[in-house]
Here is the input.
Amino acid sequence: MTLSLHTLREWDSTDPLASFRDEFDLPDGLIYLNGNSLGALPKAAKQRAQQVIEQEWGQGLIRSWNTADWVNQPRRLGQKITPLIGAKAEEVVVADSTSVNLFKVVAAALALQQKKGRHEIITEPGNFPTDRYILQGLCQSLAGDPVLTTLPATEITDRISEQTAVVVLTHVHYKSGQMHDMKAITRKAHEQGALVVWDLSHSTGAVPVDLNGADADFAVGCGYKYLNGGPGAPAFIYVAERFHGKVEQPLSGWFGHSAPFAMLDDYEAVGDIRQMLTGTPSVVANSLLEVGLDIYGRVDMQQLREKSVRLTDAFIELVEQSCADRGFTLASPKDSKVRGSQVSLTHPQGYAIVQALIDQGVIGDYRAPDILRFGFAPLYVRFEDIWLAVETLKNVMDKELWRDERFQKQQAVT
Ligand SMILES: Cc1ncc(COP(=O)(O)O)c(C=O)c1O
Here is the structure.
């Protein structure tokens, strides 16, 4: 049976999440399939921005650290993330960027493990570049001579040894959308005495995550993708409660001190999740992220997952139906059980095709060397959009619109 526009519109009419789309300010006529890169603007963020700037900053000035409770934002926002990732209310804090947070948690995990004579960090080839770069930098800069080993994900659990300190993996791969089995990998790592750090950047708000259920040790994730926190929004850190008060992290700034305003000369960690904080939080950015998180407070994650699977399945099916023999290969798992909320295709002309699509009002993105990436944020992507996106892709290919000179030169951000 082939999928029709009629069927997709019917699915939209019975979609329990359909009303969330109205909470976002999406340009008319645009099909936005890039919420995995930068989430859409929640309408309420505009009023919140005005409030935090004009009232809290403009009028409240320094008093707002107390009167507007700025000082507790990192924890309060962290608590709002916990239901999305299966963590306890006290296990998550919002701060800094994913890159910086990864440095902190891997260093913390490593410090615990080095005491037991374990020095090896394992990750996979093709993990998100910043994850790999942070690990490389960390190995060069930390005492105790940590070593970085790169192994295909399928080999990692069998190769963990008494040398292995930490395994660092991205739960949903940024390029392929392939989802690791968090529970199985964590269990196998623990059996060998290793810890695991999960990067949840492409999982949080896209697929239900159960960190506690997987007995996860540490995790980090991004605020500007599916959480719709705005460009460069702060990221988050999860540390399992069993490590609170037992870990050390090298960016030991005053916001992680047990008494920041006692102004003491020597660092003394606070002993709870705030120990992962470093310096003054980004108040304006946190305020906008909170708007995105408050929307998720009303979302049923099982419904979200069901919609995400349907959206991604429909996209794959329609590409096969309408764009067969156009040179595309599916670069994401066909099995939705191991796929996040994105679908990637490969094509040798991937960059130009994505530019032509954007020109036609369908926004996806390109990842070198040949990936066309489409993210499906279930809060605002409609089933009808899938139809229109694939029809546009077909048109771009049939009319060879991608050959236009404008689409050949790569811009700084792809
Ligand atoms: C898996 C993963 N980790 C980290 C990042 C980005 O980290 P940062 O926000 O520090 O630039 C991304 C961005 O796309 C990502 O996909």
Q: What stands out?
A: Residues 301-322 form the longest helix (22 residues).
